[in-house]
User: What shape does this take?
Amino acid sequence: MHQDAHEFLNFLLNELVDILEKEAEAAKADAAETSSPSEKTANGPKNPQANGVLKEPLVTWVHKNFQVTWLE
Assistant: This one.
């Protein structure tokens, strides 16, 4: 039973992170649509990321409160 509760909590936290990431992406897309023409170029944003460069993951309140940090 203890493991079931732990797995359910993990599932809920993962779902929350997914929802928060989708909301952040939607907000970013809305901001990009409403930005002034001087902030955009004809072919995309001014400062696109190079191919192969991973963007930094979004850190939500779920990560801040529940992510394990190891101290050395």
About this structure: Strands lie at 40-41, 44-45.
